[in-house]
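User: Need the bound-state model for zinc ion:
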Amino acid sequence: LSDLTDRETWNDPAVQSCAGLIDNAQSIAVLTGAGVSAESGIPTFRDALTGLWARFDPTQLATPEAFAADPALVTRWYDERRVACARCRANAGHLALAELERRSKAAGCRFRLITQNVDRLHQLAGSSDVVELHGSLWDWRCTHCGEQREERAVPFAEYPPRCHCGGPRRPGVVWFGEPLPSEAIAAAWAAAEDCDLFLSIGTSGQVEPAASLARVAAQTGARLVEINPQPTTQSDVVDLVMRGPSGALLPLVLA
Ligand code: BV8
Ligand code: ZN
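Assistant: Bound-state model below.
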């Protein structure tokens, strides 16, 4: 990210206009992806991946078929991510989004944070009622009796971890090919339709149905802002682009 530290690449006018859009908004929807956790040290899906990720494509491991074929391998991969995440702290971008929620609500502006991330760093930063489109790395569910619990102790002692009923437990995330939780998708769609300002932050916009939210917001007349060091699938529909890291740009917007 070093080449993004010089001021001109942050195109200051964009920071000011984003702040202006926020001040005038009546309803704000934010969609975040792995990029907002990058500055916390959590590798994104499309970065050069470390650990198990170097040898496996997440779309091959994050599937019900992979778990059925090799529950030990898949749960070991998720446990590696839990161990890495357990050491991570929320970064300035997460904290700025929690602050934006507080300011919006104090100003009578509706606000909804929708995330594709499964690390729960938004909640750690103080964001409340986060819509988790893809579940959480910390929730684990028994595939026999269905009992689901948040598990924070790392690492697991065995793979797959077992329920007291003896059944293998799986991570409470949405795998590729699985439907998103109906209440999460309904809340996200409603927020995208209701908002007059949609912030797409740290997502490459390649996973559906999450990637359609920006277009839903655009169709109902919202202004769209993209915060990302790279172009994305949504760059052509956004009104304002901020080409930089969210951990540096968001605090500037709220300054
Ligand atoms: C479903 C949990 C149907 C698990 C995840 C062919 C075409 C189109 C769609 C499909 C297709 N084949 C299959 C599909 C559907 C599929 C899909 O979209 N596949 C993709 C790969 C093509 N979708 C599904 O399967 C979904 N379910 O459709 O079900 C259905 C309906 C009814 C009944 C039965 C079935 C389920 C999708 C959810 C999958 N689970 N996560 C886990 O984590 O292990 S997805 C996972 O990957 C993440 O949650 C996230 O959503 C996605 C990664 O995307 P990003 O977050 O955008 O991250 P990425 O690395 O891509 O990009 C990072 C960005 O950050 C980059 O742009 C980078 O520039 C930027 N960045 C980097 N640093 C910073 C930064 N930005 C800001 N600041 C920085 N510092
Ligand atoms: Zn059980």
